[in-house]
UniProtKB/TrEMBL annotation, chain A:
Keyword annotations from UniProtKB, A to Z: Amino-acid transport, ATP-binding, Cell membrane, Membrane, Nucleotide-binding, Translocase, Transport
The keyword Nucleus appears for this protein: no
Listed transmembrane segments: none
PROSITE patterns documented for this protein: ABC_TRANSPORTER_1 (PS00211), ABC_TRANSPORTER_2 (PS50893)
Keyword Lipoprotein annotated: no
Domain ABC transporter: 1-216
PANTHER family xrefs: AMINO ACID IMPORT ATP-BINDING PROTEIN, METHIONINE IMPORT ATP-BINDING PROTEIN METN
GO MF annotation: an example: ATP binding
InterPro entries for this protein: AAA+_ATPase (IPR003593), ABC_transporter-like_ATP-bd (IPR003439), ABC_transporter-like_CS (IPR017871), ACT-like_dom_sf (IPR045865), MetN_ABC (IPR041701), MetN_ABC_transporter-like (IPR050086), NIL_domain (IPR018449), P-loop_NTPase (IPR027417)
Gene Ontology biological process terms in this record: amino acid transport
Protein name per the record: D-methionine transport system ATP-binding protein
Xref: Pfam families: ABC_tran, NIL
TrEMBL record, chain B:
A UniProt-annotated Pfam family: BPD_transp_1
Keywords, in A-Z order: Cell membrane, Membrane, Transmembrane, Transmembrane helix, Transport
CDD domains named in the record: TM_PBP2
Record-level GO cellular component terms: plasma membrane
Location in or out of the cell: Cell membrane
Transmembrane segments annotated in the record for this chain: 26-49, 61-84, 90-114, 154-177, 197-220
Record lineage: Bacteria, Bacillati, Bacillota, Bacilli, Bacillales
Protein name: D-methionine transport system permease protein
Amino acid sequence: MTVQKGEIFGIIGHSGAGKSTLLRCVNLLEKPTSGTVTVGDVELTGLSERQLQNQRRRIGMIFQHFNLLSMSTVRDNIAFPLVLAKLSKFEVSKRVDELLKLVQLEQHADKYPAQLSGGQKQRVGIARALANNPDVLLCDEATSALDPQTTNSILALLLDINAKLGITILLITHEMNVIRSICDRVAVIDQGEIVEMGEVLHVFLKPEHPVTRDFVAQVADSGANGQLLHQRTGRLLRMTYIGDLTYEPILYNAVKPTGVQFAILQGTVSRMKQTPYGQLIVELIGSDSEVESVIAVLRDEGLEVESI
Amino acid sequence: MSGIGKGIDFENVRWPEIWEATNDTLFMMAASLVFTILFGLIIGVILFLTSRRQLLQQPIVYGVLSLIVNILRSVPFIILMIMIMPVTKLITGTTLGVEGSIPPLVVAATPFFARLVETSLREVDRGVIEAAQAMGASKWDIVRRVLLRESRPGLLAAVTITAVTLVSYTAMSGVIGGGGLGDLALRYGYQRFQTDVMIVTVGLLIVLVQVLQTVGDILVRRFSRK
Ligand SMILES: Nc1ncnc2c1ncn2[C@@H]1O[C@H](COP(=O)(O)OP(=O)(O)O)[C@@H](O)[C@H]1O
Ligand SMILES: [Mg+2]
């Protein structure tokens, strides 16, 4: 499995599937029994303990339960990795100020973790993980202990960090919503095995493995109503729009010149990371030849059309 | 001669001697506490690190150290004191007086304190240790900057309990002429039936324990962040 530089790569799986184990293999908190781990152009599995400690500074990590030093202030928590890297007092304090600003915690610098909300604690975690300008950020269920609104603000921050600093983000989660909001690519893990992997949009619209389908169903607003679909007499189509097409009146334009009528039976229009997409199940009612010509027009416009 | 029947008039109490004994007790307690903290911290940290699923997991080292600690803890102080007399003599040149009681006090209190240290370190969140490892911390960094720091309230409570225990041990060391308030209580209060001296010395010991516990509690509260 390879994660590209600069991308946000998500790993999704049910609890106990082995997500944390896989993520912890990346910085060798967990030693894999076989295989190699390479970050950038350094093979971590071949390093001495000392060298590994140095390489780990290039890999930031944040956690579900934040794992902050409870006896240290926000400032000292963020300073911790810098002190480990033996920066001078002046450099440490300068860098901590920058980081506090980045995660918008300037007013909370002298508080202790117990005085912060979950979202604020995770911001401290993020600042601490970014302190040594890592190339990679590992996120172990970083939003799973947070409410939906805070989750969104943390995801926005991660997206921002990825865009501004170009840091590769590898995150694991059991929430499809997280994958849909910020990931470029996704891998699905089940019982310690990667069962599906690809562009988020692709995996989302065409899930193949049963586990993937479960996750996709989590965020689909309605389960496919098989009963209802079976009772229809016209041609049933699943149409998928991606990108700007989503907002065009394509279906209307396609049927207008013909006598075909349509009914929308089910549909989603949403957004994945920055890309809008839509998926509709429609019934076309008309003569076979007219229906075929509508389908041809839709495909011409760039839609994916599937008979069901 | 005074006695309980006649009421207590403290006629036998020679205050300068009491103050000197109080000083001796304080000195024995403080000096042995310093050594106990030093050795106990080291042994406690080693116990913790070598225990199962910890950074230096070493079942044999842990087993041996743990056994020694248990043995020392199961010998009553008074017997331990007599047992190690030759060692005491070797270190301080005497088995009597204030100096003579410091080695047995340290030997008795160190295993006790080491166990308390081990227990406090176990309370440190595993996730925090892991986070430090992920940031490239060495084992020494983790001991110094994570374990000892995160467990500070627990360690302060452990020091308090140990200090109080040491006060009662110093009183016992009076039996072999260790000096201090215990010695006084034993010589005058018990052997010469001077109940008033007994009451004054016991009263001072109670005050000392109260002060130690209160100061300890205040420190623990001051350093708690949860
Ligand atoms: N590839 C694997 N091979 C064997 N055991 C594994 C593998 N991945 C994970 N496990 C085991 O499965 C359990 C759950 O793994 P974990 O990574 O904590 O799951 P998750 O984070 O997805 O909830 C752990 O006890 C781990 O040792
Ligand atoms: Mg997990």
